[in-house]
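Quick check before the chapter quiz. The format below is the same one you will see on the exam, so make sure you can read both the input and the output lines.
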Amino acid sequence: MTTLARATDTLTRDALAVLQPGFAGTTAPDWLLRRIGEGLAAVALFGRNVRSPEQVAALTAQLRAEREDVLVAIDEEGGDVTRLEVRTGSSFPGNHALGAVDDVGLTRAVAAELGRRLAAAGVNFNWAPSADVNSNPDNPVIGVRAFGSDTDLVARHTAAYITGMQSAGVATSAKHFPGHGDTGIDSHHAMPRIDVGADVLAERDLVPFRAAIAAGTRAVMSAHILVPALDPELPATLSRRILTDLLRGELGYDGLIVTDGIEMKAVAGTYGIERGTVMAIAAGADAICVGGGLHDEGTVRRLSDALVEAVRAGELSEERLADAAERVRALARWTAANRPADGASDTADGDVGLRAARRALRVTVADDSGPLTEAPYVAAFTPVANIAVGDETPWGVAAELVRLLPGTETGSFNGADAGSEALAAAGPRRIVAVVRDEHRHPWMAAALDVLLAARPDTIVVEMGVPRAEPRGARHLATHGAARVCGRAAAEAIAGV
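Here is the expected output.
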């Protein structure tokens, strides 16, 4: 141990306990170890902290040398949103693919295996699953992260995911309460607003969260969204009506409430991170997620100082802060009590993600030309990735087709001239066009128009939500852009 816990006053220790900050690098910086010694109870990992499972295991061991019960959190949904496999693409197909299969046993098995891998790396708290009902097909930030647009389907798979992951000793966090699925704005950038009645919310958006609570989720993550039917003034993260009266009172939830990233513009751009942090804890949140963007010691100091000053100024009760800190520590005790025993890896099911991706694949055949036998040209029509997904993680089918059909070439295209540029690059080769949410991107649909007019034998692979009408000589819908989704599509294209 490199630092000793200081005799920090109780108020400051409680303020540190409710923060879940990130940091830079693949080893823990000295300032982070020092803050753990002073009372910081949780640390968040992001893609920048990950090089390999072995490196993450060494990092988490370093953190636990400072505090054995520290919570190590991660945003590992599998599918498009992966941190553990940020540089290779996920071994798990993601929620929308699991919803397309609609086998709760498979969802449970996938979540259990993902949880096993997290636990093996020393991660014990996952900010997942998304329990959002993706009712707005133009949603820019949820999409394939949701199990689907059907409320009951989302509810049963949310429960199965929670049961599977927590069986591995990794606490789950159902998100984004009270439901981010009916939004047309990404809360990373601005404040979304959901204008539906309380009855619609109760019958649609809240149902999966009720299922999550019944399944025993150890945490629920709040959304930075304005829902006037529930609170006409404050977003959910800052709303006592939503976090305390609805989630705790009406829904009877007694576990940890963690906020979505407090530095996201929906909160930071309106209230600032210090005021937003104080308001969130006062409203009923117990933990503040921070570090996706801001990940330095100064941020931790600013937020802990803001909490302490708010208590001393009478803006936040000391009892509320103490209660929040105790809920964080209670979650840490649960993870310690449910830590997998040595040898638990003997139950590993390393192929379950690929099996799920293969089952999720939907192929529409318009011609009878059969599988490809010669190396094609893969034209990837690449939209701007949302912040939750990030742009570090590779996606598509090209890498897998190179393996199956050596000599395959690829290019990435975007914008008004994407179709003609792809045609020129492909030359005489058979084209495989890869799209992601074609229905949301007019330029992408136009690019396909150009390709199919000139080359009707083009194969189309949709790796987002398959809302657009299937077209092309063959159309494959993977229901996600994870590495295993690309492999399943490539196998179908090459007839493997």
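If your answer matched, good. The longest strand covers residues 171-177.
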